[in-house]
Design a protein that fits this description.
This protein is α+β, with helices and mostly antiparallel strands. Helix content is 19%, strand content 32%. It has one domain. This is DUF397 domain-containing protein.
Length: 63
Amino acid sequence: MTHINWEEPFCGEGNNCFRLGTDTQGNAYIAVAGQEDHPLTDTREALRTLIRDIKAGKADHLL
């Protein structure tokens, strides 16, 4: 089983908390805080791109 190094939870308004994590094989993970056993996974570069796009406002229409 892969060991995931989870960051501290990030919580937005209304207690919407999620966690980011990485493993030694270069994979990145995102999960709802408390549900880390069911993460979404992709490459670190894909996670980096997602975070950049969110910061640039490209996901604002989803809020």
